[in-house]
Amino acid sequence: MPRIATRNPLLERHGKALDLFGDRVRSVRPGQWEDGTPCEEWNVRDLVNHLTSEQLWVPPLLREGATLDEVGDRYDGDVLGADPVAAWERAAEGSREAFATPGVFDGTVQLSYGETAVTHYCAEMICDLVVHAWDLSRAIGAEERLPGDLVDFVVRQLTPRAADLARSGLFAPPVEPPPEATVQTKLLCLVGRRP
Predict the structure, then answer these.
(1) Of 9, 16, 76, 178, which residue is most buried, by most CB within 10 angstroms?
(2) Contact in structure between 136 and 47 (CB atoms under 8 Å)
(3) How far apart are CA 118 and CA 109, in angstroms?
């Protein structure tokens, strides 16, 4: 009897998050690449570069089992080149394909804080894509409303670690949400954004 492929909700969310961020990247107008973003240290190009670099790491970590030392500084600096949109598209497709490798979610990956389940790594990537999709939307004047299912997922992932987010240095201190805040607003406040 043929084996029936089962859906992987995590893989589907990752694909949807890639599509969300990619849609915003394709919406950047030529004069906006140097504009500021809610991430004070990054302009639009820096933000897209960060997410592109993150996607470039996925294939060597998942497909080759590479360590951080083996990858080294391969994806440091500017990875966007003369065509940022094309660079993003290539990196996103490589990440999408690597996470879709059969059996990959049964394994682990070496990250800066040690050996980590691929499921956890993928969840982290989704969170980063979704939060930064909002950052990019705000920076370029695009639609800021995020898909509700992705927002709910990111809230479930980040809320248990709320106290550690600001201490990590990767997020600004949380902001008190208004009483009538939506789930998206609460998420953005959790990661130090001012919606």
Answers:
(1) 16
(2) yes
(3) 6
Q: If you average pLDDT over every residue of the chain, what do you get? A: 92
Percentage of residues of the chain with pLDDT beyond 90: 75
- Greater confidence (73 vs 112) lies with 73
Count, in order, helices (H) and strands (E) of the chain: 8, 2
Q: Is the pLDDT of residue 3 over 50?
A: no
Q: How far apart, in Å, are the Cα atoms of 161 and each of 114, 152, 166, 186?
A: 18, 15, 10, 14
What does the block give as tokens for 127? 């969170």
CB count within 10 Å of CB 30 equals: 5
Query: What does the domain layout of the chain look like in residue ranges?
Result: 9-143, 145-195
Fold of 9-143: Four Helix Bundle (Hemerythrin (Met), subunit A) (1.20.120)
Q: What is the C-alpha separation between 131 and 23, in angstroms, rounded? A: 14
DSSP letters spanning 5-36: PPP-HHHHHHHHHHHHHHHHHHT--GGGTTSB
DSSP designation for 113? T
